[in-house]
Fold each of these.
Amino acid sequence: MSSTPQHDVDHTLAYPEPPASPLWHRHGAKARPLTDAQKRRNRELLLLAQRKPRTTAA
């Protein structure tokens, strides 16, 4: 057992995490689920974006 105090202790870990911001919570109606057509279009656009070479804006 050492008699020297520990100076490398992170005291921020000793405090509880603050509550989440109320802005992070949704109020009101839930989002509607995507239709099968919307899911298919999203998959097609994702595949196209993954294949297309990336261009830089001028």
Note: The chain has a mean pLDDT of 78.
Amino acid sequence: MSNTQTEDQEHTRQEEVAGVLPALAQLDRTATELQEETTSGQEVTAADVSTYKQQAAHARHLVEATGVDHREVTEAEKEHRGDGDKGFAARGLDHAAHPRSFEPTPAYNGQARHRDDDEIDL
């Protein structure tokens, strides 16, 4: 195998790894937001939880399809820092491999709220 072929293969691999980074960055952002909302007692909707689960499944699919590993992802993050906060790739990879169990806030789980007697239907 010539140097050119090896360089081409390495470049192709780097592109494959870089292609996974946006999904990992988005998953990391979504997970961080859900954790902050849960911790602070803010509203977490069923749609928020569903989005996280879908992003985790998508990222997991990309990781499995490309066969990237932790080392490749963290090295690629150094070159593509603009995709997320420092460490986003490793955190996103962790969420893809081990999704967390977030729950919607009880008042916002898609069920009808208990209406106050003072509420008026218009």
Note: The longest helix spans residues 3-40.
Amino acid sequence: MKLLGVFAVTPVLCAAFQDLGGKYGGMDWLTPAYTFWPLMLAPVGFLIVFVTYREFTFNSPRGTYLNQTIRAVCYLFLFLTAIALLYSWLAVISVLICLSILVAGPILRKRAAA
């Protein structure tokens, strides 16, 4: 859960730092890329957590919280990376990763139950 939290909070902190530093700090080097790249890389971290802890997620009673958390964060980042498509077409990869996690979760859960 801590690793998932790091991947989810880092883009938010980068966005806040870019907004405050660029507006009030006079830091012109803080471009929108400072916000969008961590936002596009976060779903890769979600995929790593999803694949690494898949046995724990689908076979234990405590794992359902991890599964629900990953799904909730993927829904949020699906929306945010869709907005990032306006910045770069590479955000398509992040959108596809979020969609694959959301689709693969119920499929793997059915297989684990059988």
Note: Helices lie at 2-23, 33-52, 54-59, 63-84, 91-113.
Amino acid sequence: MKIVKYLFLSLNSLLSFYAGLWAYEMVLWLVWEQTISKGDLRAVQYWAGIAYFIILVPTYFLICFYVASKIKSGIVRLLLYPIGCVLVFVFPILFIFVAFGGGNLFSAEAFLFYVFFISSGVVFGLGYALSMFLSLGKF
């Protein structure tokens, strides 16, 4: 049963990454009426992927484990998993900006990455709550 849980959590990590990428593209299209080129998409996938899998996935798991160990109420856990994961969205953005030698954290590009990592945190947190519900019969 643990293998199924770990497989589900791995798929949840990938799903939340692609949910963030989708949100990035949708906001780019809805707000600025632009599409992303293949080259830019690869760059976003590369840099966001590095930041996501090195920084966010371990941080997400730490947050979720902490919430699971300290909070007993199922409804409160359901809320705290995605909220906790959303609140760390700035760490990968700082990583990306440092990798490029700085930049404006209030720029349009930064806003797109904020959307990316915030939506990723919501999806990861809700997916983690679902995995706890399925494996334990409760949140």
Note: Residues 19 and 82 are 14 Å apart (CA to CA).
